[in-house]
Amino acid sequence: MTNHAEVVAVYPDKVKIEIDDLYGFLDENNGLKIGSFLNISGNDNHSLIVTIENFSLESKENGDKKYLIEALPLGTINDGIFHRGGDTLSIPPTGVTATTYDDIKLIFENSVEEQKKFIFSTLIHHHENISIPVDGNKFFNKHIAVVGSTGSGKSHTISSLLQCALNAKDNSNIDLNNSHILIFDIHSEYKSAFPNANYLDITNLKLPYWLLNSAELEEILLDTGERDNYNQASIFRQLVTENKKYHNADEEKIFYDSPLKFNINEILNALFNIKNETVHAKKPDHYMFDNSGEDGEELTNQEKLQKYFSDRYTFKPQKNQSVSKGTYADGTLEKFFLRFETKVNDDRLKFLFDEENFNLTLQETLQNILGYTSKSNITILDLSGIPFEVLSITVSLISRLLFDYGYYHKKLLQNNPDRISNNDVPFLLVYEEAHKYAPKSDLVKYRSALQSIERIAKEGRKYGITLLLATQRPSEISETIFSQCSNFISMRLTNPNDQNFITRLLPDTLGNMTSKLPSLQSGEALLLGEAIIMPLFVKINRCNPEPSSNDIPYFELWKKEWKEVDFNELSDIWNR
Q1: pTM above 0.90, yes or no
Q2: Using 50, 70 and 90 to split pLDDT, how confident is the model at 116?
Q3: Measured at the alpha carbon of residue 319, what is the angle toward residues 315 and 322, in degrees to the nearest 5?
Q4: Pick from 107, 47, 37, 112: which is nearest to 76 by CA?
């Protein structure tokens, strides 16, 4: 074989190659392109693998042309094993050739132990039938980010890698493997991709309101912009605390934020009575119920609240000499009560405030969310029907519950001498369109969800809870969350801010790879992180079945005959 190329310069982050006969070199190597791999051999049985970054044409002093290739060093092959890094090349190199199919296959086949191999993509542009394995442990036990502009194939990518995970089994005798996944599906896309999933939407989702923490409760029920907010918050906290004591008499220490049952309708009863109560003008602990005597009914504050919880009462009207208004019967709670009652009775919020939810247990709620009720590997939580004003809180509550599940499951296993990890039922949370509820924002409406997801990002791995963020705007995601991600699948990105965000994740020597992001085809991605041997452009394997996120063929549909719409049926669905 004629040697048409030689290395003319070696730098720590770059190799420069001069070609004297371009067409002979291309013919010998079956054509090359930007991104192709080259093999630079040394004189000590080491080979340096590089990838072509750019090509240039220069003129020599005699007028002839010389062809230059600049390539990025990826690693060396020594005795058939690939090692990341390019600083062991002996000088001078002895030759340059395109890597063979066997060389490339060897690089990736030996990069991950067989038991840990997880495959959901192939190499693009050259040798597309070479599968790219990642270390499944490092991929799933570290947080993952899937980013890409709309139409780049994020939903298909997520479906493909999750389908691969659900189908992975140690042996053929396993019917249902031990994978556990929850997708926060904001656009109702994933039901078709996972027909056997535990599917929850606003019609069958049950989240007991008493599991909401104080911040979540107040975010729903209190108006932080109102002048009387302090009074509202004060009386609400008092009522919730006392009602928890009323329903949990066996508990020794009960506080406002204690995760214990309380009855939301009894809180409403008490609030109704407090805003209407009258008292004896000279005896403020005598309450003037409509059916009480002239001196009213003497009650301690605790006795009064227990009575107020049970029913709504009418009170004697105010009289100058004998009957006075109660402390909060000055109208300051009126708007609060109306808003509170409207929220509790809103059919759209029945998944939270339905009366039956009081009787649900924590065990039943967890079993349903974790897929143990239907024994499903994957739970799809369809958020498309959840009212926007409680979307963030819904995500916050479920995220917090699953973090606590991981925390207490670890404690449960600590007494098991046969345990092999902190959690033998590790869980993956998939946050689709994460920028909608975990953005870089100081707004109160995002506070609860941000705190819950950031807690998982910072501490969840210790308890077997990892997250997968999917977004078309990575630069708008909370940096606290994104900085904890260790594996990235970056699809087509056209926004410069988002491209720069991904560039900062790469080593300086590989930063130019992001210049290709705007030109990637649907389903193509830059795969990088701790689980992959080196950053690579890959083609994601096609999922089967697919999510319902395909583009609508506008022009084909517009050319067809006019179609009627059943607006009555549409209205019925709209108002459910």
Answers
A1: no
A2: very high
A3: 90
A4: 47
